[in-house]
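On clarity, I found the account of how folds are encoded harder to follow than it need be. What matters is that the chain and its backbone geometry are given together, residue for residue. The format is easy to grasp once an entry is in front of the reader. For illustration, here is how one protein appears when written out as sequence plus structure tokens.
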Amino acid sequence: MRSADLNCDLGEGYGAYRKGRDDELLDVVTSANIACGFHAGDPSVMRKTVELCLEKGVAIGAHPGLPDLQGFGRREMRITPQEAYDMTIYQIGALYGFVKAAGGVLHHVKPHGALYNMAAVNSELAHAIAEAVYRIEPTLVIYGLSGSELIRAGERFGLQTASEVFADRTYQEDGTLTPRSSGTALIHNEAEAAAQVLRMVRQGSVLTIKQTEIRIKADTVCIHGDGNRAVEFARKIRNTLETEGVSVRSVAVEKSF
């Protein structure tokens, strides 16, 4: 039976600010990427989100981003590979502490926002991030854009990788995501998004914004948790997959060192 993981970015509030319906989303998704304090999140939010994940049996991942609270980590910054390595180590370490203290196991790492997109096309940044993951714990799964430099870097280090696709984003001809600055970047229609996900998971392809078909690998599907109808959107995606015979479950950890 074909299977797919549903992942969601969570724990994105901080201080007095709360964002998203994490509790409800964790009843639908199978893995969570928890903000580590740079682009969003704070110690209390991290702890509570980890505890919720363990309570609901959802795989826990670190979601390191650029140090940009004001821009929510979605603005590119000129950073060196060494800086990328250092900030990735720092953020994974912070979340790892909360996971360990709660009696859980850290499952994966997925960069956030601009850092994710930069690592998708910049081989040096991708190498630095993959090396950081490897040095901390080589059994961690690294989530990256399907066909990206980050996936290739993870494979070179011998890490288990999970090729990621997006339910609510459109694609360019080279397999990258359409920039959010474009009016065609997002898919708002739930049925359209569900159809795109089903095609990517079952057929291994996606239609670009120019309506050409490109190949894609879909081990895990990202569902953004910060929209007004994020929970309903997630349920639609999961129900569509399960109705069509796709098993929805977290990425099984296969590598051991």
